[in-house]
Design goal:
33% of the residues lie in helices and 25% in strands. With 253 residues, the chain is of the alpha+beta class.
Length: 253
């Protein structure tokens, strides 16, 4: 009898220990919800389903019948005429910009000029075509030896082309066709002996803001020896380049 009672008590004690141990195990698990074990099981099951759903959503779904690829307007074939029209439309802005630059150059930088007369032979011949830089003297000074284009002081409706011989402040004198500047003989390698003359001119001082110009063909030139100096504001360009005839194509320096 006593043994039976002891066995029953031992079994109860065992149940109590199991219950406490199980409780202890429950307490050591991470607590997500404040409910008991059954809600946690439901929560775990739910979270498992959600995780599986997320995994399925993040994985590309395979389809047994994929839809055929479609062509965008860019990938679609274009007939040659349409393609050419599109290319021409793409060139229009570039051509327009190039035309503006060309017009700016022609009107404000370089002017085509036709030479008339023989006063600049042998360097320039009658009816030759040259380019005149009409912008350069905004950036630099006029130098001795430059071939310049200017308005004729006695009739500004006409333009002349001559070579600069005297600068502002110079003392200039001509003795039997030879030019002296500030008492020194001026070297003029551009002259041809057949175009020389033997005229003389008394010394003269070039006033400020003016230039003394002469033609290279001295015995055929109407220049500062006859009508005086050229004011700076009358000079509008420098002869830079001969483009016609092609046989004499090149710079004029």
């Amino acid at each position: 009898m006593s043994e039976t009672k002891k066995g029953i008590e031992a079994g109860k004690a065992s149940d109590i220990e199991h219950t406490v141990e199980a409780g202890a195990l429950r307490q050591t698990e991470p607590s997500v919800q404040s409910a008991g074990s059954e809600p946690r099981l439901e929560s775990k099951a739910t979270s498992g389903v959600e995780a599986e759903s997320v995994m399925r959503m993040s994985t590309p779904q395979e389809t047994s019948n994929p839809s055929p690829p479609t062509l965008s307007p860019i990938d679609s074939p274009i007939d040659p005429a349409t393609r050419l029209l599109l290319e021409i439309r793409g060139w229009v802005p570039d051509l327009f910009f190039a035309a503006l630059i060309a017009l700016f150059i022609v009107f404000f930088v370089v002017r085509p000029v036709r030479v008339e007369g023989v006063s600049m032979q042998p360097r320039l011949v009658d009816q030759e075509r040259i380019f005149v830089n009409s912008f350069i003297y905004h950036l630099t000074e006029i130098h001795r030896g430059d071939i310049v284009v200017f308005f004729y002081p006695r009739d500004t409706s006409k333009s002349f082309i001559k070579r600069v011989i005297g600068l502002p402040g110079d003392f200039l004198e001509i003795k039997s066709g030879t030019v002296f500047v500030n008492g020194k003989k001026l070297a003029e390698p551009y002259l041809d002996a057949k175009c020389m003359d033997f005229e003389s001119m008394p010394p003269v001082k070039i006033r400020e803001g003016a230039y003394f110009v002469m033609g290279d063909h001295r015995n055929q030139s109407n220049d500062s020896r006859h009508w005086g100096m050229v004011a700076r504001e009358y000079i509008y360009g420098k002869a830079m380049f001969r483009y016609w005839p092609m046989s004499r194509f090149g710079t004029l320096d």
